[in-house]
Amino acid sequence: MELANIEELLEKYLDAETTVAEEKELKTYFSGDNVAPHLQEYQAMFGYFSTNKNERFTKTIQLKSQKVNWKWLSVAASVVLLVSVYTGYQDNQQKKAEKIYAKTQMAFGMLAANLNKGNEAILQLQHFEDTKNKIFKQPKK
Amino acid sequence: MKQSEFLKTVMPFKDKVFRVAKRLLVSTEEAEDATQELYFKLWRNRSKLKDYKSIEAFAMTMTKNYCFDRLKSKQASNLKLIHSNYQEKDTPLQRRVELNDSVSLVHKLIENLPEQQKLVIQLRDVEEYEFDEIAKMLDLQPTAVRVTLSRARKTIREQLTKQHNYGIS
After folding, report:
1. Best CA proximity match to B15, nearest among A58, A137, A79
2. Which structural domain, as residue segments, surrounds residue B93?
3. Mean pLDDT, to the nearest integer, of B120-145?
4. Given Cys at both, which of B20, B122, B144, B151 links B140, Cβ 3.0 to 4.6 Å?
């Protein structure tokens, strides 16, 4: 293609008025060896576009999700939470009951000990009574 | 839509989806994830695909939206995309890039363009879509597409000329 023609196309190209076909012509021209020296900066540009078009997606595309199904995971998590809260509550109740039981037992223990003290005192009194009876004669009945 | 039929309609443009995603997201890994994600979405919506005139254009719009969302969330979480890992090892592309330094310069110049210009230049100059196709994909007027494209092309050219002259003097 003539140089004048190329220059004209480039002008249009910069104003974004070229068609796809005309741009292809430009690409072909700049991929060739005899590019005019004053147009060399365009060579890098068109060269880059052509090179970039060769880039490929090399991985395989998967259509089925590999990701963990978060919906089911959340259901499972909430079940675990519920169960643990429930057992925790039960455990707590049990501990509370044990505490109350221990307290009651202690209270009973204290009561028993004090009652025994009273008994001892009464026993002493009894003793006193016996001795008194020995010393003083019992009035005959 | 059956799987074989689905694959026949959507697979031909998987490279285009990947390249457009990579243009916007820069990193190859991100672009691969985006492509994978996009095909999930297409597969999930396969019953609705018949309603679209061009599934390819629809897929491109989805790609654009997905990538813009990704970029937004990246910015929000203050994570910067790594702008240097576009070079892949052992691909023919890489070797050719190394051969021609000014070609990789073009890559950098495009990278510095605003998102919309990047996208338009990718869709037109690499993927060779018609203006009204691009307009539909991006939900723009064809004239707006032309204006954006012209701006992008002129910027790249200007920068290249600057670099070129700098190299000479």
Report:
1. A58
2. 88-169
3. 94
4. B144
